[in-house]
Amino acid sequence: MNNDIEQVLYTQTQIDNRMDEIANQLTEKYQGQCPLIVSVMTGAVVFTVEMIKRLKFKLNLDYVDVSSYADGTQSAGKVKLVQDLSSNIDGRPVIIMEDIIDTGHTLKYLADLLKGRGAKSIEICALLDKPDRREVDVEADYVGFKVPNKFIVGYGLDYRGLYRNLPYIGILKRSVYEN
């Protein structure tokens, strides 16, 4: 797998340090509350699990599975809800955990859906942000790192289901996904 990586952008140590910083901010803000953490499957699983271990407040965890990628490399722009929440969010603060904000279609759809269900507040916590690809107006409240407009894998992010288990964030070689 490592031979398929053009460049490592962020090491495990850099990711851990940044997640500690974000967790401290979230812990300060949500002390005494019990927000619902919503993990966006499947890419955000690694990030969510590592993040909630750092949070020092009561929380509930749920997940949704949404998709806007038709062929694995390009966003289709249409979002499909594959798996819905099992929790009632009416009147609750919600923190959406996302692996990467790309075009923004998925997060806009999800934030609008949860607002419509009566969430008290919605904040977005994303491991990565790729602002050069944004097509809709959506921003995260907490961002680990900004990344270039390249194909990013590792730490939960994949190409055709592979590379999620890399302990770092890297750029996938073009030769891997253009064949």
From TrEMBL:
UniProt keywords (A-Z) are: Cytoplasm, Glycosyltransferase, Magnesium, Metal-binding, Nucleotide-binding, Purine salvage, Transferase
Tell me which domain of life the UniProt entry assigns to the organism this sequence originates from.
Answer: Bacteria
Enzyme's top EC category: transferase
Q: Where in or outside the cell is it found?
A: Cytoplasm
- Any idea where the Phosphoribosyltransferase domain is? 12-160
* Cofactor(s) in the UniProt record: Mg(2+)
Q: Which pathway does this chain act in? A: Purine metabolism; IMP biosynthesis via salvage pathway; IMP from hypoxanthine: step 1/1; Purine metabolism; GMP biosynthesis via salvage pathway; GMP from guanine: step 1/1
* GO molecular function term, any single one: magnesium ion binding
The EC number(s) given in the record are 2.4.2.8
GO terms (BP aspect): GMP salvage; guanine salvage; hypoxanthine metabolic process; IMP salvage; purine ribonucleoside salvage
Tell me the Pfam families matching this sequence. Pribosyltran
Gene3D superfamilies (UniProt xref): 3.40.50.2020
Q: Which reaction does it catalyse?
A: GMP + diphosphate = guanine + 5-phospho-alpha-D-ribose 1-diphosphate; IMP + diphosphate = hypoxanthine + 5-phospho-alpha-D-ribose 1-diphosphate
The record's listing under InterPro entries reads: HGPRT, Hxn_phspho_trans, PRTase-like, PRTase_dom
Q: Which residues form a coiled coil?
A: none
Q: Does the keyword Glycoprotein apply?
A: no
State a GO cellular component annotated for this protein.
cytosol
Protein purpose: Purine salvage pathway enzyme that catalyzes the transfer of the ribosyl-5-phosphate group from 5-phospho-alpha-D-ribose 1-diphosphate (PRPP) to the N9 position of the 6-oxopurines hypoxanthine and guanine to form the corresponding ribonucleotides IMP (inosine 5'-monophosphate) and GMP (guanosine 5'-monophosphate), with the release of PPi.
Tell me the protein family, please. Belongs to the purine/pyrimidine phosphoribosyltransferase family.
The protein, known as: Hypoxanthine phosphoribosyltransferase
Q: State the species of origin.
A: Limosilactobacillus panis DSM 6035
Q: Could you read off the lineage of the organism from its UniProt record?
A: Bacteria, Bacillati, Bacillota, Bacilli, Lactobacillales
